[in-house]
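Batch manifest, entry 17 of 40.
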Amino acid sequence: MIGVSDTHYGSSSNDAASLALTALAGFGIEHEVLDCDPELADTATFCEHYGIALSVSANVIIAAGKSNPRQYAACVLLASTRLDVNKRVRKKMSVKKCSFASAEETQALTGMQIGGVTALGLPASLPLWVDSRVMQLDYVILGGGSRAIKIKISPTVFDLTPNTTVIEGLAIEPK
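Output type: structure tokens
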């Protein structure tokens, strides 16, 4: 796990998008870059406006363990599910309390704004945890590193990303 003070990924979301696309190009995996109105980048709004099912859209959420020093992990889950931050993530981090990282912490760790966070091109020291449901799809829509793009890609990309663990039950069905 890394702390905010240990890593500053990039100075702007354009830098983060460039790094994400560069990482993606290095993987050599087929993908499609989808343009997105930045005002419509938040998942529910994006899916509704562009006619994308929540069940193929993935959120990348930074979880923060309330420990000293703070611990972080990037978590990938389907937009139709909820991150099990209070049980599964907390136990995986081995901390007593866990929550979602703030927008400021997320940007400091990744260089990305909420609505554009991607799992591609993250700092290698940041653990990437992928809910196993994501891996069962033919394709997934991910953030692109900025609020202006999304990426349609096979979840097999997570076989190539550094520091990645696929976790059964990382996310749960909403109540």
